[in-house]
Amino acid sequence: MARRKYVVGNWKMNGLTAALGEAQAIFAAAGAHPAVDIALCPPFTLIGAMVAAAPGAVVGGQDCHAAASGAFTGSIAAPMLVDAGAALVIVGHSERREGFGESDADVRAKAEAALSAGLSVILCVGEPREVRESGDAVDYVLAQVAGSLPGAFDPARLAIAYEPIWAIGTGLVPTVADVAEMHGAIRAKLGEQAGAEAADAMRILYGGSVNGENAAELLGAGDVDGALVGGASLTAGKFVPIVEAAAGLG
Ligand code: PGA
Question: What CATH number was assigned to the domain covering residues 5-44+52-80+105-184+195-249?
């Protein structure tokens, strides 16, 4: 099946109201590439304003709680993201797994909550440097996929993002061969867990130091259906070349 390319910006804890102009510029430029699906995930505080500033744009959250409501001070529930105008949410980013102690079971519960609320999900996996160096990266990541994948899901609404932790924000990227090996292994695992048809329909994004210079090569690797972009998603000047690279791969 032909999977549409998907380029998603993760603004992390960056962005005040003044940054909405960059979002408008990104979505306006992306309009020239209708074959590529584009989304931006700003901080919670900007979701409603970004949806209002860029009507029709696909905007998402960076995390959600597994419960729909309740006494969880400081947390945001999936229905709240929907209420703010979000269409998707990232779950299981390594900065949440590592910084907030989220386990595979936590990530799975969040993904299931998000899907039940009607959101699409980008579920992140990825190995730390020492695991890559010891040669166990594929086994490590496949265990994360097995432990984090929701029990039942619509494959059109669940994407996996492979993000080696050592590549995030460092300027380091894996070789194209390593990316292709990992993405192929993830798709095979998805096939085991969800069936061949679902695995074929699901998009697997690469994330970690993607920029305008390396995007064409990374996105051209086998089983890579797009990119999850951090630093280079904050400005149109850096993000749009990644969208253009994705569009060039048709
Ligand atoms: P980076 O972040 O593009 O800044 O490396 C990617 C991510 O964490 O999603």
Answer: 3.20.20.70
